[in-house]
Write a structure and sequence with these properties.
alpha/beta; six-stranded parallel beta sheet; four-stranded parallel beta sheet
Length: 342
C-alpha cells in the first residue's frame, strides 16, 4: 500500500481507534491520552499517511501557504545572503507543513504598487500570512499589512506603533564583540570602513564599532566614500595605511567592503593578516575563497527563519499569543586567517 492510497480509516484500523480519534490526533492532540496519541502516531508513521491538506484548509480556513516578497536581485549577480535566507525559510516552513509562495513587491516601485501586490493575494485568499525581509523602519510593506490587519512576520525591526512581530540579529553586539576580539589580539588603532547606504542594520554595526572602539588605547576612526565607490574607498584606506599612524586592523561594514580593504592593504605594500587585520560582516561564501580567508560575522539564517515561521503561525492561529516584543538573536563570529593573533 502506497502513502497515496492510505486513508484515515486505514490508520484507525491499524491503531484500533475510531476515525474521530485519528482526526483528534492530527488536529487536537491535547484531547487524547499520551498512550493513545503515541499509538495513533505510530500507525500514521508506519502506513505513511498524509492528511488531505485541501480538505483541512476548507475546515480551518487556512491554506498552509506563506507569502514571501522576494527582494529585487540581479540573476547574473545574485545576493548570496538572501539566497541562503530563502533556502532556510523554505526548510522552516516545510518542517511545519507549510509552503512558500514567492511574488514580487519591490518597495522602490512606491507604496501604491506594493499595496496592489499584497491586496491581490489577500483578496484571493491564497495565503495565510507574509514573511518580509530587508525590513526598514518606514517600510511600506509593513504599513500595508498592518493597516489591513493581516498576519506577517518581519526579518528586521519595525517602527514603533507598528506590530512588533519581528526577528533580527543583534548587529551592534556582534560588531562590538569583533572589535573587542581585535583588542584582545593586541590591536590598538582600528579603522571602520563604513557604507554610505542608509540602512538600519548598517547603523547598528557602526554603533557597535564606536561602542567597543572607545576602549581602544588609540581610539577608533572611520573612513567612507560617497555611493560606496570602490576606487574612492580603496584610495582612502590606502592613504591611512601609508600615513604615520596607520591602523593595524580594518573592520568593514560588509564582506564586499572587505574586498576593497584587501585591495588597499596590498596597494600599500602590506599584507592582509600579517601587517593589517581585516574583518567583514555577513559571512558570504566568498569569505573562504579569499587569501587569507576573511574573518566575518555569520548570520544565523536557519534560526531566523524558524523564528519568523513560528511567529507567523502564532499570528495566524492565535493572534493574542503573539509576543509584544521582537526577537533579537545573537550572530556568530567566525575567525579566519585575516585576523591572526598578534
Amino acid at each position: 500500500m502506497t502513502a497515496r492510497q492510505v486513508t484515515i480509516e486505514d490508520v484507525a484500523r491499524a491503531a484500533g481507534v475510531s476515525r474521530q480519534t485519528v482526526s483528534n490526533a492530527l488536529n487536537a492532540p491535547d484531547r487524547l491520552r499520551a498512550t493513545t496519541l503515541a499509538r495513533v502516531t505510530a500507525a500514521i508513521d508506519e502506513l505513511g499517511y498524509q492528511p488531505d491538506q485541501s480538505a483541512r484548509s476548507l475546515r480551518t480556513g487556512t491554506r498552509k501557504v506563506i507569502a514571501y516578497p522576494a527582494p529585487a536581485d540581479n540573476p547574473a549577480d545574485p545576493n548570496p545572503l538572501m539566497g541562503g535566507f530563502l533556502q532556510a525559510l523554505v526548510t522552516a516552513a516545510d518542517a511545519v507543513g507549510h509552503r512558500v509562495l514567492l511574488f514580487r513587491a519591490d518597495p522602490r516601485q512606491g507604496a501604491g504598487a506594493v499595496a496592489k501586490s499584497f491586496h491581490g493575494l489577500i483578496a484571493a485568499r491564497q495565503v495565510d500570512g507574509f514573511v518580509l525581509s530587508d525590513v526598514v523602519h518606514d517600510d511600506p510593506r509593513v504599513d500595508v499589512l498592518a493597516e489591513a490587519g493581516f498576519p506577517f512576520a518581519a526579518f528586521g525591526r519595525t517602527a514603533p506603533g507598528r506590530p512588533q512581530n519581528w526577528v533580527d540579529i543583534d548587529s551592534t553586539a556582534a560588531t562590538a564583540e569583533l572589535v573587542r576580539r581585535l583588542l584582545d589580539q593586541g590591536h590598538r588603532r582600528i579603522c571602520y570602513l563604513n557604507s554610505a547606504a542608509s540602512l538600519p542594520w548598517l547603523a547598528d554595526r557602526r554603533a557597535g564599532f564606536l561602542q567597543a572602539a572607545a576602549d581602544a588605547p588609540d581610539g577608533g576612526f572611520e573612513v567612507g566614500a560617497p555611493d560606496d565607490d570602490p576606487a574612492a574607498l580603496a584610495r582612502a584606506v590606502q592613504r591611512l595605511l601609508t600615513g604615520p599612524d596607520r591602523p593595524t586592523a580594518v573592520v568593514c561594514a560588509s564582506d564586499w567592503l572587505a574586498l576593497t580593504a584587501y585591495q588597499a592593504v596590498r596597494a600599500a605594500g602590506l599584507t592582509v593578516g600579517g601587517d593589517v587585520a581585516v574583518a567583514g560582516f555577513n559571512d558570504i561564501p566568498l569569505c573562504t575563497l579569499l587569501q587569507p580567508a576573511l574573518t566575518s560575522v555569520r548570520l544565523p539564517l536557519a534560526a531566523i527563519a524558524r523564528g519568523l515561521v513560528d511567529r507567523l503561525i502564532t499570528a495566524v492561529e492565535d493572534p493574542a499569543a503573539v509576543p509584544a516584543a521582537g526577537l533579537l538573536l545573537p550572530a556568530e563570529l567566525v575567525l579566519r586567517g585575516s585576523t591572526p593573533r598578534r
